[in-house]
Amino acid sequence: VIRLFALGSGSRGNAFALDTPDGTLLLDAGLSAREWLRRAEAAGLDTTRLAGIAVTHEHGDHATGAVRLARRFGVPLAATEGTLRALGPGTAGLTTVPLRGSSVTEVGPFSVACCRLLHDAAEPAALVAATGDVRVGLAYDFGRPTTGLRWLLRDLDAVILEANYDEVLLRTSGYPPSVQHRIAGSGGHLSNRAAAELLGELLHDHLRLVVLAHLSQQCNAPEVARAAVEPHLRRLGFRGTVAVAVQDTPLPPLPLMPRPAHLQAELGLPDRA
Ligand SMILES: [Zn+2]
Ligand SMILES: [Zn+2]
């Protein structure tokens, strides 16, 4: 059984995990190692099968526990070179795996590809992790989808996508205009409406799970994000699951069926050696 875990998501910490028969890959570990362990246990994630940790960028809400968990479980830590450098001397002695935008990198049993995002971090990236059975994408902390991001996120079985703010709630948030502009700008965050539009573009027959993530606590709410996205996707024919990750509690594990064998050839990322 393949399962996606959403242990927490928001400006105070993002932590996901893709659990497959071949092993488990953490996608961001933006909780303290201790809190991560507590939530993994609460959610029923078997930590003895960890095969690697991939992080999108060095900000605390994405990477706080990454180095410590990689050391504790003796697994490789994968990120762009800029992110690995920004994580600092703490990574000394760890197995680090640099991710490059132009190629697919093996992280344990997973193939990981990335795409650079515009955000105020060293070398932030969106990620796609694939095994023979499933292909999962993760993108947040960006304001505008690019052609490169759309290409990275094509043909997914599951996507974790930022739905940061509702436009009306942002305008009435009481944030100063300069802050509102930064949030809504190209290096800011993705609105619910922009997330719905991008998901509409990414839809295809095998996309079965959408997880809305990194919701603002001030300018969004789970039911608001869902209302902006789910009816739009249903109208376009989406019959899968829409889940909304929240900050403080793990979601129940989200099951993902492996792709039918006749479709698995499509999983190969194009430049895989
Ligand atoms: Zn960030
Ligand atoms: Zn963030």
Question: Secondary-structure blueprint of this entry?
Answer:
Blueprint: E1 2-8, E2 15-20, E3 23-29, H1 33-43, E4 50-54, H2 60-63, H3 66-73, E5 77-80, H4 81-87, E6 96-99, E7 105-107, E8 110-116, E9 125-130, E10 135-139, H5 147-152, E11 158-162, H6 167-171, H7 177-184, H8 192-202, E12 209-213, H9 222-235, E13 241-244, E14 254-256
Parallel strand pairs: 3-4, 4-5, 5-6, 10-11, 11-12, 12-13
Antiparallel strand pairs: 1-2, 1-14, 2-3, 7-8, 8-9, 9-10
Helix pairs in contact: 8-9
Bound molecules: zinc ion (2 copies).
Explain what this protein looks like in three dimensions.
The protein is an alpha/beta fold and 273 residues long. The chain has nine helices and 14 strands. The chain has a seven-stranded mixed β-sheet. The protein has a seven-stranded mixed β-sheet with strand order 7-8-9-10-11-12-13. Helix 8 runs parallel beside helix 9. The chain is globular and about 45 Å long. The two termini are 27 Å apart. The C terminus is likely disordered.
